[in-house]
Amino acid sequence: TLVLSNNTWMDTWDAAANNGVTIPNNVVIGPGGSQLRATRTMYYNHAEYNTFSGAFTLNDNLTVLNTSTYGGAPNNVATSSTFTFSGPISGPGGISCTNGLPYTAGGATSVNTETLSGANTYLGSTVVNQGLLQLSPIQQGGGAYLIYDNSTLDVPPQTGYNTVPMSSLMVGASTGGTLSFGRYAALSTVNA
Fold first, then answer.
1. pLDDT for res 108
2. What's the half-sphere exposure (Cβ side, CA atoms, 13 Å) at 118?
3. 1, 102, 111, 167 - which has most CB atoms within 10 Å?
4. Does the structure show a pLDDT above 70 at 14?
5. How many helices (H) and strands (E) does the chain have?
6. How many Cβ atoms are within 10 Å of 186's Cβ, its own excluded?
7. d(C-alpha 105, C-alpha 110), whole Å
8. Residue 108 and residue 84: Cα distance in Å, rounded?
9. CA dihedral (168, 149, 87, 156) positive or negative
10. How far apart are CA 147 and CA 143, in angstroms?
């Protein structure tokens, strides 16, 4: 188990083979919170790909700083770093994702992305600053959701549940954020 607290941070840096970083360990965020970062520009083919497959326990807030981009050889196409959290996330803390601005190279534009795919029951707030956050099909914590300007929250159908519970929802502070329901086959107004 990896324990991070007191505003410590860990910056991932892809290997020379550029296959991405996978951390299978369980992670506990302790008092004072912590940051996970992807801030380095990669040197061949694509930006950083980070996967955390263990369980996360948020006893305080987790900040994800995700600003890595790459648009060079050999493909010369824009890529932005990703964080995938495939294990469950629980505890009283929340998650704040701060991403870089959309990146354009080779005629393509990409955005930094975080994907939550485990069974998530954390109780704290979920914050998105720039970029894209893709929620899990089991997102049942119920905290506040703050989707700031130029940010997107992608909400999937919930497995075994009708809604994504939340204490409040803010989408855009002045110029607007986006709620995406693109993973739904059809939308129902019954629970709206």
1. 82
2. 18
3. 111
4. no
5. 0, 24
6. 6
7. 9
8. 22
9. positive
10. 13
**pLDDT tens digits, one per residue of 98-138:** 998 888 888 888 899 999 999 999 999 999 999 999 999 99
Q: Which residue has the tokens 């790909």?
A: 49
Lowest average pLDDT, out of 95-109, 130-144, 155-169, goes to: 95-109
Check: CB of residue 143 under 8 Å from CB of residue 123: yes
| Residue 17 pLDDT exceeds 60 | no
Site of tokens 């995938």: 84
- How far is residue 192's CA from residue 188's CA, in Å, rounded to a whole number? 8
Closest CA to 42 of 110, 97, 95, 96: 110
Strands 95-99 and 126-129: parallel
Task: Give the C-alpha separation, 91 to 78, whole Å.
Answer: 36
* C-alpha pair distances (Å), 165 with each of 10, 83, 177, 182: 30, 23, 19, 19
Token pair of 86, please?
């495939």
Strand, helix or coil for residue 110? strand
Tell me the two tokens of residue 150: 């130029």
150 φ/ψ sector (left φ>0, alpha ψ -120 to 50, else beta): left
